[in-house]
Design a protein that fits this description.
Chain lengths: ~120, ~220
């Protein structure tokens, strides 16, 4: 989608969080990306490294992939899915709908302070 | 020296989502049912809208916001049908966002032709409707699951062309339902008019349901 502008918004969120934590240094952040958020994870990881390193030295960027859940239309098995086609690993039938996997959020930050 | 992990859980698109929530609240208060139409380029959004407007204009107040990367061509086509049309030229942008969308019973938002990015941006609409023409291939729902997953309805367009194609309606339905079993399906041809009655009566039903919900919410207030 728009991974570079998403990375910039992620940096803004981190900066706002840091304002609440005086004298802290950002060391890591975690971003949760749903399988159906239309975001390319590799590109986002690359863009995050670029934009974060402009302001913060040595920050570790973790991109956490969030799968969706599908239910088999035939045997009813619930299984995790990250991409189509959504076929049941047990019986091979197609799913009856996919839920979840829509996340796109800053999950956590890690900071170090002199305290 | 101490290290700690701070839970944030803030949506990356929270600024857009907040604007969308404000737009949604305003539209609902004014009892405007807003449909965000999403599809690939050339699947027939503008043509379907022209037919829909002609059928529904006698009974409802309609409005259209038409997003295009460049030109006002889509908006100009719709203006000829005698309804208020707002053109949004994104100037290269491949989707609309909530900032660009701010009185009618039924408002259509014709998004930019693209099945990827428009799925990700909430505009504050009542529902997303995804369009897909029969010439595009049956596996569109599998290739672009985000758009189909978030839509309330799927409108198949150009069905008059089916006799000339190797196209299985059953397979599209199977693929679409594997992504989203709650999709309401419409098979339409703007050329012959097939299926347009079902589509417009579904829209009219949604408008009526919103009005009923708003009225009962109003009468429930002390």
């Amino acid at each position: 989608m728009h991974e570079l502008s998403l990375a910039l918004q992620i940096r803004e969120i981190c900066e706002r969080e840091l304002e609440k934590l005086p004298e802290s240094r950002l060391t890591a952040l975690g971003v949760e990306v749903g399988a159906f958020s239309a975001v390319e994870v590799e590109t986002l990881s690359f863009c995050l490294q670029v934009v974060m390193s402009e302001r913060f030295d040595g920050v570790r960027c973790e991109v956490i992939r969030q799968p969706g859940t599908a239910a088999c239309s035939s045997c009813g098995l619930q299984f995790e899915v990250t991409q189509a086609p959504f076929e049941c690993p047990s019986c091979g039938a197609l799913a009856r709908g996919v839920s979840g996997g829509d996340s796109l959020q800053v999950s956590y930050i890690e900071v170090e302070s002199e305290r | 020296m101490s290290a700690e992990r701070v839970t944030v859980k803030e949506k990356v698109l929270s600024a857009n989502d907040q604007l969308a929530a404000e737009t949604r609240a305003r539209l609902e208060a004014e009892r405007v049912f807003a449909v965000n139409l999403i599809s690939s380029p050339g699947s027939g959004k503008t043509t379907l809208l022209e037919c829909t407007v002609d059928l529904m204009k006698p009974s409802l107040r309609l409005g259209v916001m038409a997003g295009d990367v460049q030109t006002r061509n889509d908006a100009d086509r719709l203006i000829r049908h005698g309804i208020p049309v707002e053109a949004i030229e994104t100037g290269g942008g491949c989707h609309l966002d909530a900032r660009q969308v701010s009185r009618a019973d039924l408002l259509f938002i014709e998004n930019v032709g693209n099945l990827v990015c428009p799925a990700g941006f909430d505009l504050g609409e009542s529902v997303k409707v995804v369009l897909m023409s029969v010439t595009e291939g049956e596996d569109k729902p599998l290739k672009y699951p985000a758009a189909f997953k978030r839509a309330a309805a799927l409108v198949l367009t150009k069905t008059d062309l089916v006799p000339h194609l190797e196209f299985s309606l059953e397979r599209v339905i199977e693929y679409a339902r594997s992504v989203n079993p709650d999709l309401t399906l419409f098979s339409t041809s703007s050329y012959t008019g097939d299926g347009l009655a079902e589509w417009t009566s579904w829209l009219a039903g949604q408008v009526a349901a919103l009005k009923r919900a708003q009225e009962s919410a109003k009468s429930a207030r002390p």
